[in-house]
Amino acid sequence: MKVLGAGPAGLIVGLHLLNSKDVTILEKESRIVPSTCGEGIDLNSLYELNERTGFNSDRYISKFVKGAKFIYPNQKSFTYSTLGAVLDRDSWVMAMAEEFINDGGVIEFGSTGRCDIDCSGPKSGVVGVQYNVDVKYDSDYLEFYMDKRFSDYYTWIFPKKNTTNIGLVGKYADIDRFIEYKKIEGRVLSKKGGLIPIENGNLIKGNRFFLGDSAGMCNPVSLGGLVPIIYASDILVRNIDNPEKYRAEVLNHPMSSPALESYAKYHASFSNNDLDKIGEVVDGGALPGFRLSPLFRMLKYPSLIPKLKSLGEALKISMDYGW
Ligand SMILES: Cc1cc2nc3c(=O)[nH]c(=O)nc-3n(C[C@H](O)[C@H](O)[C@H](O)COP(=O)(O)OP(=O)(O)OC[C@H]3O[C@@H](n4cnc5c(N)ncnc54)[C@H](O)[C@@H]3O)c2cc1C
Fold this sequence. Notes:
This protein is α/β, with parallel strands linked by helices. The protein has helices spanning 8-17, 43-53, 89-102, 172-182, 226-238, 243-252, 258-269, 272-282, 293-298, 305-321; strands at 2-4, 24-27, 40-42, 61-71, 77-87, 106-109, 117-118, 126-133, 141-145, 155-159, 164-169, 188-196, 204-205, 208-210, 286-287. Strands 3, 4, 5, 8, 9, 10, 11, 12 and 15 form a nine-stranded mixed β-sheet that branches. Strands 6-2-1-7-14-13 form a six-stranded mixed β-sheet. The longest helix is centred in the last third of the chain and has 17 residues, at 305-321. Bound molecules: flavin-adenine dinucleotide.
């Protein structure tokens, strides 16, 4: 089998496929060049990856987190507990490449061409930018700031062991303003950006499969692309002789749920005033298993009820399938 691209998608599906096929990855660069990433991922998906491919990610975890914390412009917040991690993604990707080669796979660097599985990354999307800052940020959660002053999507702070990833959909100048607002001091160690494809693309063309960012698999709510790759590569390998079935199973999987798209649309339409009201309703909440008080607060803003319901649905799917 020929796979295009030695990013997470190409390597993960390559490791899966090596159980039953000879696999060659064509990579246009002369070495592994990891793309930009906030490096956040949930632990269940890493265990799933280990189970399916035998690749153990433990050594590449920079910091464990207890879940995600969502913070609104008025500083109200709630948490969603799911064990997760912030990876050292560059070494994680390098290690997968090494294991792929040790297991008998071939990577042809500086090479491109026809393939069976296209994992060549995003062709379009929104622009995400990120700093890695020389600061040890004291939090056990991935923090998501739902504040339109900085980004129409959200701004993230993902704490690593000794440094911190701070990023958003927008421009570097927006991160600068956010860092000033948060009074985060520290040297910027790296500045990187990339496309985040949030609109579904082709999953198949004829007999050719598309996986990962080349198929627009990023979750439109969390913007995470690694977890969909882990689940979709399993579906792909099970249906390697039946592209139509791959397409149908991916589209039926919770990672493709219309609930994600529909909350992303609500979020795009919110002003900071709306977000403050949501903050008021959800403040202090701890999902899963919301405490009762936020439900009563909802009655103060009846027009928000369907949007909060949609938020709940989208969050549940995102926490299970798509950080
Ligand atoms: C700022 C930012 C933050 C993010 N944060 C997170 C996060 O915290 N968690 C998360 O889950 N996801 C995150 N993502 C998304 C995640 O990084 C991507 O979904 C993931 O990298 C996609 O992997 P991929 O293998 O599909 O594509 P890529 O990582 O882009 O790899 C594609 C590979 O294909 C090669 N290639 C391209 N064209 C060709 C060709 N024609 N021939 C041969 N080789 C080719 C490239 O050189 C590259 O090696 C983030 C993305 C951005 C931009």
